[in-house]
Amino acid sequence: MRILIAPDKYAGTLTSGQAAAAIAAGWLRTAPADELDLAPLSDGGPGFVETMHEALGGCLEAVTVRGPLGEPAPAALLVVGSVAYVESAQACGLALTGREGPRRATTHGVGELLLAAIDAGATEVVVGLGGSGTTDGGAGLLAALGATADRPLDAGPDGLAGVTEVDLTAARAAVAGISLVAASDVDNPLTGLFGAAKVFGPQKGLADADLPAVDGALQDLAAATDRKAAAGKGAGAAGGLGFALALLGAVRRPGFEVVAEATGLAGRAAVADLVVTGEGAFDFTSRGGKVPAGVAALAGEHARPCVVLAGRVEVGSREMRALGVESAYAMVDRAGSRALDEPAAVLEELAAHVATQWSR
């Protein structure tokens, strides 16, 4: 059989490349004659630049930017011809904050990545959004590009609270003539019940008691700039980075779509007998542009079965089939706490088990 292995990262444990390798190793234990095609993926979050480099080649350029809490953060931008790819998580990711200081964490470093991409000669910059540890509405990014305000834009949501005037003239001039693309799986607005703070803030370390104040700061930013853009799809991505990019004229594209196009995933699914995908948690959020849903949809277009190997599975069988997934298997069901302690080994074991059911 021809097996396409196309997982996302397993957040906090395995990169998409490590996950693909573990699934392949386990599969070959059971079905050594199968032909495997490994396609590690990303939805715009951590691993985006690495995935695009593997797919497109190009030149990786190392840069150091200001991290979310002020420390130097090493990052890389990928230049392919006149197009540059940057990953916001490298400059303001949750891995850099460790859920600490969420009310002062800034996206300033992402703006520095944009400037580095422009300095490298790019006329189009694709920004992968996801995995951020920030909720500043992208104000730090705007500050790095030259925006000014009556409140500090680079001090996180606490510094932003009460802002009434924002001058974007210099920031827009800095990206004049540059095509910006915001690659994200999130379609939430900036503020409100489904906004960046209320939905994603707790994941970044914000206490429930912090959420009204942080959402209020984002509302202040929207009122001082563009309320319509704040209500747009994806404005709440990466703690509001989607909003800041929208203010600069960026076009939003699903991160999975960008990666699938670069990797030629549709064609690879068309010639597979079975498609295997996965992520850390296969749950209700998987419907909204996440990798497994996107992979399953492509598999379905070519009448290929798709199965999911995840850390946890919290999707019922009816919803699973609505997504185009035949079956889903959980690492924690197989190995309990070992799934976190030895994720590669457990995923390999799970893949070997799944192959007994699907390879023939």
Automatic annotation (TrEMBL):
Protein name from the UniProt record: Glycerate kinase
A Gene Ontology molecular function term of the record: glycerate kinase activity
A Pfam family annotated for this UniProt entry: Gly_kinase
Entry similarity comment: Belongs to the glycerate kinase type-1 family.
E.C. number(s) listed in UniProt: 2.7.1.31
InterPro entries: Glyc_kinase_flavodox-like_fold, Glycerate_kinase, Glycerate_kinase_RE-like, Glycerate_kinase_sf
Keyword Transferase appears in the UniProt entry: yes
Species classification: Bacteria, Bacillati, Actinomycetota, Actinomycetes, Propionibacteriales
Enzyme class (EC, first level): transferase
Keywords, sorted A to Z: Kinase, Transferase
